[in-house]
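Annex B. Sample input.
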Amino acid sequence: MSSSPKSQEAAAELLRRRQARRDLLEFVRYTKGDYEPNWHHASIARKLDDLATGRITRLMVFAPPRHGKSELVSRRFPAYLLGSHPNTSIIACAHTAELASDMNRDVQQCIMSPEYQRLFPGTSLRPGRANSSTFETVSGGRYICAGVGGPITGRGGDMLIIDDIFKNAEEANSPTIRSKIRRWYETTFRTRAMPGARILITLTRWHPDDLAGQLQALMGSDRHADQWEVLCLPALAGDGTPSEIDPRSPGEALWPARFPVRALMAAKAGCIPADWLALYQQAPIREGGNHFRRDWFRRCRVSQFDTPGDSFILMQPDGSTRRVKREDCQIIVTADPATSEKEHNDPTAIGVYAMTPSGDLLALSVTAEHLDLGVIPERLVAAANAWGATYIALESDGFQVSVARATRTVSGCPAVRELSHEGKGKLSRAIPAIIRAQSGQIYLLQDADGQDLPWVAAFLDECEQFTGLAGNRDDRVDTLAYAVLEMPTLAANGPTWVAASRRARHGASTSDDDDDDVSELPTSRHRW
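Annex B, continued. Sample output.
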């Protein structure tokens, strides 16, 4: 005998409540009836669930303005914690006491709502113990909020939350304010952590050396420092591989129902590039130079260093290693040919790079020399053959077209792919490389003893001094920029090109019976 509609509704309601008590996203759906989450809200909520249960203890969430991060992190998550973990003590800070109080009010309103009380009837506000800066619950929970520098000393927290610690770009660009906030974090906020406490930082990135950038740099340089899980959600997807956390293809909008690509492109058109990268892409760069930081670059080794080995060993910030088979990587040579061997002219830079299946880029060799024009093709082919590169990609505007043609005539030459900057500035071309470096996705080769190879120091010096302006030595950076720009193409076509390039290098037949068509090699000019 089938159940009545009323009993079915009751069963469905009980199921919704059960799910809402153990899953943050379902909790938000239940307590905020008009909530329509996008996939990225689910990604944030999963990380917050992991934080709530202690599966992770340090979490950073970066997302563009108005994309719903504060609703989850600062309004619903604290209320959910006080229901699912009733005796939790929460300390929440924002850039001003006023904003922190607003968050406090919203958390209290959520707890007092009938929907919340149906889920967690044992959690309610303790009478006489609730105001604009703090409240307690009858079940032993506590919530304290303050602006930066506000009164949180003398109190401990199980969950420490920071939401948008800089009020605006002016604050973030001030070295004095950044230093003040870092000191406040270390001497006040961080010291409030109880044993086993978790820390959550959510913000829109304003500057490479904002608090999040400083803590990530510390994590990379000291394995004893707090190790952060970082969820970065740019407004427009980059060229990374789609994943469960971010399933987008390159160029897709983060929340197309609210901010479609056309709206984001309009916002981009109204921003200077640095502001767009910071606010929307969560990849801040420095104005006027110093776009790269030395400590962003990680290190890797070859398992058999005397010859190109069978594996690359990637050194991780926590002291562990990750091994990647060389045969699973796509290796290319990139170059920026110069016109003369005279010292006052630009040198010819030649870089050898390997792309791993997970989208990391390994710099295997980056050199810059003043070479006679006739020597450049042989050097390019020698570099390619030394590492078994799939192809050579070189800037080919103006006189450099002749270099590409001459390179193809050298014995043993793999495919040659000509690149054109089409008038785009050096900084514009370098921005994807800057973003990857900042994300810890670029590795520099060391010797078997863990020492940097001789070329690394000059490469890092040039990266650190890179401005993208005329007159700045940037030839090595150009090879890196081109390598990063080639990564989406490599990911899409690499396996086919590897086989075809081997055939081209060894002068194999290209008859119709061949499985690999050498005509598919990337030898035509490539435009951005």
